[in-house]
Design goal:
Blueprint lengths: L1 H28 L3 E6 L8 E7 L5 E11 L8 E3 L10 E3 L4 E6 L12 E8 L6 E6 L4
Antiparallel strand pairs: 1-2, 2-6, 3-4, 3-5, 3-7, 7-8
Length: 139
């Protein structure tokens, strides 16, 4: 009887431990990503969009595009031109690394009150495109 209780205790401990380890691995492998927009307002310096990879794996971005929603009540998104249309590039961002997208003088834009700016990223290994709000920042 005592031997059977020990086996059940060990089996229960193993089940709890393996579940905990599986959840921890899933938690570490999830996509953590942040995007920031820096607009200088000066004509001679570029505006910059910074992509930050907060996950524990390399991210490879095969395509990105900016979208503007003119007001919060609208479902219509307008694509924003930033000078890289048709460019083929693979962007590799290491864990805890950043990548900067420069917006040159001729492609700069002003964001007004009530407008929302989104970035749409195609990340290799992720089935759906990743869409994130850039402006306004909800802190």
């Amino acid at each position: 009887m005592s031997n059977m209780v020990n086996e059940i205790t060990i089996a229960g401990y193993a089940a709890v431990l393996s579940t905990f380890l599986a959840v921890r691995e899933w938690y570490k492998a999830r996509l953590l990503f942040d995007v920031s927009l820096f607009q200088t307002g000066e004509p001679d310096s570029d505006d910059i969009i910074v992509l930050y990879n907060g996950s524990s794996r390399n991210l490879i971005i095969s395509y990105y595009e900016l979208y503007l929603r003119l007001n919060k009540n609208s479902d219509t998104l307008r694509s924003m031109e930033i000078g890289n249309t048709g460019d083929f590039m693979l962007i590799k961002i290491p864990p805890s690394g950043t990548f900067e997208i420069s917006i040159t003088d001729q492609y700069k834009f002003k964001l007004r009150e009530g407008q929302e700016l989104f970035i749409n990223l195609n990340i290799m290994g992720v089935k759906k495109p990743y869409k994130q709000l850039i402006y306004p920042r909800n802190i």
